[in-house]
Structures are given as structure tokens and as C-alpha cells.
Amino acid sequence: MIENVVEFFKNLPPKQCVTCGETIEEQHECYQTKCPTCSE
Ligand SMILES: [Zn+2]
Q1: Which among 22, 25, 29, 30 is least surrounded, fewest beta carbons within 10 Å?
Q2: CA 9, 12, 17, 23 torsion: positive or negative?
Q3: What is the CA(4)–ligand 1 centre distance, in A?
Q4: Ligand 1 geometric centre to CA of 40 (Å)
């Protein structure tokens, strides 16, 4: 079961901005749903 969870996270698509669809780089502290451009 644990292996399946690891595979699940490995296969997750990159986060995308909910506004423009731009790929968002992982931020270790913030969980953003918008890219920096749309957040401002
Ligand atoms: Zn955006």
C-alpha cells in the first residue's frame, strides 16, 4: 500500500495556477493556487 502512495505522488501533475494555467513551482512554505503574477 505504501508503494502505491509513493507512486501516486510521483505521478501527480505539476501544480497549475487556477487563473491562467501557468505551472507553479513548489513553494515549501506557501501552498499557492495562483502563480506569482496572478497573486499580485
Ligand atoms: Zn496565473
Answers
A1: 29
A2: positive
A3: 32
A4: 10
